[in-house]
Task: structure prediction
Amino acid sequence: MMTDIFGISVEAYEVVSHILTLGYAAMAASIFYFILTKNSNMPKYRMSSVLSVVVMTSALLLLYAQKQSWSSAYTFNGTAYVLREGAELFTNGYRYLNWMIDVPMLLLQILFVANVGTARNKYMTQFSVSGVLMIVTGYIGQFYEPGRLAENITLWLVWGFISTVFFVWVLILITRVIRTGSANMKGSKATGVFRAILPVFYISWFLYPGAYLMPYLLNLGLANYEFTIVAQQLTYTVADIVSKVVYGVMLNVASTILSEEEGFVES
Ligand code: RET
Result:
């Protein structure tokens, strides 16, 4: 019976496999980009590139595990992909563990480019605390996701709500950091790309709670399991590429412009 509910078409199975592979390939490629461009920046900005490398390495390994989790959960029965008997179930848990490392790193990273003066240490502490608590509470919640064995809508929503409180805290902090940072960059050509980080951040970070909620479409009768899982994995992957790679590249471009303006010449 389980296999009937969770069976998916060949196309859906393959699209998810491809998307998950794209995710860790993008992280592998970016590792080279951040290492190779690091010295175009003044030493004081370089920690931003180092943190991008930390983020990408963790993502590469955990997203690879995520893909393995997908491949080993299913088996082909001649017409469709069905859950493999006795195998580990597919779980998004690996992603959460990746975020546990990457969320604080991504938040700290911007503090090496934005000049927030003496408030830097205060932001570092608050970003680390809010980021980690947001992920830990969401990690607990995802065990109760609709469609999972331990499905419990109330617990899933309550933990999701607690996580959202910390998310709002993160959003308030990042908005302040970007506003202060760009005010202190006045007159620099880097202001444009630095300011553009705010909308990129908001859009990409909001995709995560969106993907968390997606399985609820099942309960509302608006989508089947196959649609839900493809949409959720696609959303997570797009969000990962934008929040880690695009964001890191924007910070790096801003640092390079600032370095040049401050008279730095790569030797
Ligand atoms: C959860 C649980 C439901 C409520 C909210 C969530 C927010 C998650 C976010 C994750 C961001 C992750 C990033 C990873 C990059 O490596 C945990 C899904 C609000 C915002 C940026």
In short: The first helix runs from residue 2 to 6. The chain has a mean pLDDT of 94.
